Amino acid sequence: MNVTGHTRRPASIRDVATAAGVSYQTVSRVINGHPSVRPSTRERVLAAIDELGFRRNATALALASGRSRAVTVLTANTTHYGYASILQGIEEAARAASYAVGIGVLESAEDAAVAAEVQRAADAGGGLIVIAYDPAGVRALGAVPAGLPVVGVVETPASPPAGGSPWVWADDREAAYQATRHLLALGHETVHYVAIPSSTRRTSARTSGWRQALKEAGAPEPRPVQGSWGPAGGHAAGLKLARDPSVSAILCGNDDLALGVLRALHEVGRPVPGEVSVAGFDDAPHAAFLTPSLTTVRLDFTGLGRAAFGLLHGVLEESAPVAPHPVSVPELVVRESSGPPPADR
Amino acid sequence: MNVTGHTRRPASIRDVATAAGVSYQTVSRVINGHPSVRPSTRERVLAAIDELGFRRNATALALASGRSRAVTVLTANTTHYGYASILQGIEEAARAASYAVGIGVLESAEDAAVAAEVQRAADAGGGLIVIAYDPAGVRALGAVPAGLPVVGVVETPASPPAGGSPWVWADDREAAYQATRHLLALGHETVHYVAIPSSTRRTSARTSGWRQALKEAGAPEPRPVQGSWGPAGGHAAGLKLARDPSVSAILCGNDDLALGVLRALHEVGRPVPGEVSVAGFDDAPHAAFLTPSLTTVRLDFTGLGRAAFGLLHGVLEESAPVAPHPVSVPELVVRESSGPPPADR
DNA sequence: GCGCCTTGTGTGACCGGTCACATTCATGCG
DNA sequence: CGCATGAATGTGACCGGTCACACAAGGCGC
Fold first, then answer.
1. Do B55 and A119 touch (CB under 8 A)?
2. Which of the four CATH numbers 3.40.50.1170, 3.90.79.10, 1.10.260.40, 1.10.720.60 does domain A13-56 have?
3. Which residues 146-175 of B are in CB contact (within 8 Å) with A?
4. I need a surface site. Which of B71, B89, B101, B271 has the fewest CB within 10 A?
């Protein structure tokens, strides 16, 4: 134990060596569990380590060995439920593997800004995880220089990608499909869609799951409405849809959008689920407690984060090969906000 | 520009030196803007840097200079709005100052686990920001070894701390005071309080602001109800309070708790604000879109995060001294969930 | 013309580890 | 009994920067 309270330079490997009467290399061997160290010597070194309160300097380790045991997460936002949960999952898995987690926020989706952030992340050393649900993230994933270990957390790819592609996803295509089918099964003629930013591209997974369900049911395919990420965007989109009397079912790209839509319907005086059914996406903690409580599709974001780290971890160290594409199964959670369409139509 | 696509070892300062025909030290001088370098030399070095795509290795910089330009944020959670916003604010300010941001989650409040996390954070080098709104955070702040630069994001201290104390806070005591006064001014006999975890201690800032407002008004002081952080905790607490017919006003420790309380009141059939008024705390994005929309007190968490970083930045570099205790002024936002008590009592 | 200060540049050591190789000594085997 | 082999340990260089200092050249005062 370090009894002298002075804030002095922490003990280095050589300090330990002197204290134990061995060379610094022997100390290094003990630290790294090298087999050929005499037990008595190991004992002495460990005692010295304990006495001096030695901790291996992560910076020096990274510099000398090249391995940095660090991950940087690139994300457009830290406050939205899905993103924050993925981050939390990554951190959890990283902590278990004693990796450090860094974070970089993509404040702008503009190319130069994104490139700068990617550079900064690369400078930090170690691996990279990019949350690529939105334009900024997608762009960042594309801007990663070759050779830098990276895992992307992405929407369901349109076609099954080549094995070993460094991507992880929840099956949000399937989730959108399920939610849409649920609403159609209740008797709605069609389902309108309020999209999260990236999902307006024709290739978006959520959009295409929704579209497929409509097509299979022979339902007309309305234009997706562009939302933002938050409730405000949902509110704006909701007001637009609420004015159209033919709208009886709305699927939202996430639960925050759904919240805004619910509010808009309330303001316009269209009861949910009496006149209009609403379904969300993600099953955020508040979904169950809204009035009406929100029908939604649960996605395991934390697990997704853990999987992303696991994949990266496998790339960084040639350890146990991780399952190629860990996919969590989405789960439809039916609550109060969805029901049959009004009878009089 | 690096045209050869080979993923080879990035250029070092000595590679640049050779390319420019100078010594590595001169390159170092150019990088660091040292004045005594002949313009023509500087020119040549800069050209070489550009050509080789040289970027200064952050790890080596940290090892050699001791300064690491990094901050680690210790927090109990990344998904709650307040925490996530503080983190976002920190990241924003850190990015502007080209600091790297690391994150450590305090999964358990148990002493050993907290100590381990603090150690890990210390190993990362650089400064530390601890979000200390909850037991885990408070404990972590206490466990930081002396000599390690640290800033705590805390609740309003009970008494004005000594100048230069490394803390930052939003005035949540004042915020709770304001919200409580607002409810009392509407005519409620008293205001019940659903507390976030840390706030059950008598010293908690939010609790004491609430208590002071009650005392000044001569209102009876009910026992605070213990909530958790999320809506589920608010729901449980709300059910308890809803059964008590004397309850007509409820202040919640955050907006998620308030959401749960609203739901509980709805389930029990007590209209808001007709029979019961509810106020939240934080003004999270969803507060405005709930039905009824939520009266709450806005706190500038992002600004708080920025201030925390600013303070730490000032400690790490002897640069511009930062304002001692940046306090953001809370702002009461009155919405639909609060109104006068029912007339018949 | 000599010393002295300033400007511009180079050299060597160092930060705290790892890695490749050298060295010592005990052991096994032909 | 001599030598190859392996275990246990030590030495020097290196990762990519910074820091302290040495040193040469040019300008200035006297």
1. yes
2. 1.10.260.40
3. 146-147
4. B271
Digitized pLDDT (tens) for each residue of chain B, 345 residues in all:
444 444 568 999 999 999 999 999 999 999 999 998 999 999 999 999 999 999 999 999 999 998 899 999 999 999 999 999 999 999 999 999 999 999 999 999 999 999 999 999 999 989 999 999 999 999 999 999 988 999 999 998 888 777 667 899 999 999 999 999 999 999 999 999 999 987 556 678 999 999 999 999 999 999 999 888 899 999 999 999 999 999 999 999 999 999 999 999 999 999 999 999 999 999 999 999 999 999 999 999 999 999 999 999 998 987 656 655 556 789 999 999 999 999 854
CA A11 to C1' C21, in angstroms, rounded, equals 27
CATH class of B68-170+301-327: alpha beta
Interface touch A95/B120, C-beta < 8 Å = yes
CB atoms within 10 A of CB B165: 15
H or E, element range at B25: helix B24-31
> Which of A62, A79, A230 is nearest residue B88 as measured by Cβ atoms?
A79
Q: Which residues contact B275 (CB under 8 A, 6 or more apart)?
A: B248, B265, B342
Strand D: protein residues, Cβ closer than 7 A:
A 22-26, 29, 34-38, 40-42, 60, 63-64; B 9-10, 12-14, 24-25, 28, 31-32, 54-57, 60-61, 63-65
In the DSSP assignment, the letter for residue B295 is B
CB atoms closer than 10 angstroms to residue B25: 11
